[in-house]
Write a structure and sequence with these properties.
By secondary structure, the chain is of the alpha+beta class. The protein has two domains: 87 residues, Glutaredoxin (3-Layer(aba) Sandwich); 99 residues, Glutathione S-transferase Yfyf (Class Pi), Chain A, domain 2 (Up-down Bundle), CATH 1.20.1050.10. Helix content is 47%, strand content 8%. It is built from eight helices and four strands; from the N terminus they run E-H-E-H-E-E-H-H-H-H-H-H. The protein has a four-stranded mixed beta sheet with strand order 2-1-3-4, with helices on one face. Helix 1 packs antiparallel against helix 6, helix 1 crosses helix 8 and helix 4 runs parallel beside helix 6. The relative contact order is 0.16.
């Protein structure tokens, strides 16, 4: 019995949390939930009233939202070295790009996929400004490499890399060389490969490939 539980579905952002748990390297239990049934059932709504995945339970602590899960696990298990120390000045860039990925990148890419980007005369009212500005800023940040904050792979890379991978797969982010090189570097990590294998094995047999989901 472990005090770490992952609530997920293999066709969701739960794949991000799975990857993070594999990077952390601690034992955890997996609870697979189905859309519209167990995900909306009373037991899981007691964990996350939104009825969405992913979520984790760590002892008595529940964390939802993929970026928050990544940040929490990095701090809960500092021995995994997935975040700069709290007193380090490198914590600034780490927070900057983690929240850039969870804010402007998420909003702009989701908006593009749904045809709901802000028109030019309303761009000043949205946090991401324009889709083009977000993608250009991201490319500029990644260009020095090898990781978003320099030499250290962090939870910010994991969260951002997962978004880039899905975006390039489904055409909501263009395949710029800097993005492909960065994502390829992340996907070569043993934890990323293990997480993919586990989630792919949990996929419904009639749907062998993951599809984007709102959860």
């Amino acid at each position: 019995m472990t005090d770490l539980i992952l609530y997920t579905n293999p066709m969701s952002r739960g794949r991000i949390a799975r990857w993070m748990l594999e990077e952390v390297g601690q034992p955890y239990e997996t609870v697979i939930l189905d859309y519209g049934t167990t995900m909306k059932g009373a037991d899981y709504l007691a964990v996350n009233p939104m009825g969405k995945v992913p979520a984790i339970r760590h002892g008595d602590t529940v964390v939802t939202e993929a970026a928050a899960i990544c940040a929490y696990l990095a701090d809960a298990f500092p021995e995994a070295n997935l975040a700069p120390p709290p007193t380090s000045m490198a914590r600034g860039p780490y927070y900057r790009w983690l929240f850039f990925a969870a804010g402007p990148v998420e909003q702009a890419v989701t908006g593009k996929s749904m045809g709901l980007l802000a028109p030019a005369d309303k761009q000043a009212m949205v946090g991401y400004g324009s889709y083009e500005a977000v993608i250009d800023a991201l490319e500029t940040a990644l260009r020095p490499g090898p990781y978003i904050c320099g030499e250290q792979f962090t939870a910010a890379d994991l969260y951002l890399g997962a978004q880039l991978g899905w975006g390039m797969m489904f055409g909501t982010i263009e395949k710029r060389p800097a993005f492909e090189e960065y994502f390829g570097r992340l996907q070569s990590r043993p934890a990323a490969r293990r997480a993919d294998e586990l989630d792919n094995a949990a996929m419904p047999r009639e749907q062998p490939q993951p599809t984007p989901q709102p959860a």
